[in-house]
User: Fold this.
Amino acid sequence: MNFNNTLDFLKKLSRNNNREWFAKNKSRYLEIKDEFDSFVSDVLQDMITFDESLAGLNPKKLTFKIYRDVRFSKDKTPYKTNVSAGISPAGKGMGVPGYYFQIEPGNKSMVAAGMYQPSPENLAKIRQEIDYNGEQLVRILREKKFKKTFGELWNEDKLKTMAKGYPGDHPHKELLKLKSFMVLRSFTDNEVTSKKFRKDLIDAMKTGKLLNDFLTEGLS
Assistant:
């Protein structure tokens, strides 16, 4: 799939983020949605080859709606400026370790693996796994391909002080402070429209499975 048409539509939507413009261009949006749904279906089939826990998912239920929930947001623009999907054994919800990717113009496309803000119960389990087997997580983060693909763990969501119940001199104290456990890989618009984008996307998610496996083990 070539995402030139998708990026062009989303660029125009970002400049005309109102219901009147969207209504006039809804037929074009529906074309883009069908194309993206088909792409997600193909991606899911690729992913099942290395992550059997995703078998049986309905690809049509993995994409997110373009309509924004503005009830509790200061930003009242009605539409998202990306198309996106979440893929995990539980579907598109990220209550378990999984994958997320979005296509957004302005070099804002990305793929993520891991967990965003796990529940207090699951967070406690993950921290316990880090306490017991933190060196395993460190090895994953230092693995050559993993580090080249993602860099460091996303750390914009963490405690300022040590996690309760753990000593301040814990060898993995910075990991224990985290409240989300995710890695991200960005894509430029040129990368998204290249012939190898699907391969690069799949390759990143296959690499990210190392983190998901660690988190899944901690939750089991």
Remarks:
- Helices lie at 4-15, 19-24, 26-48, 120-142, 144-150, 173-176, 189-192, 197-219.
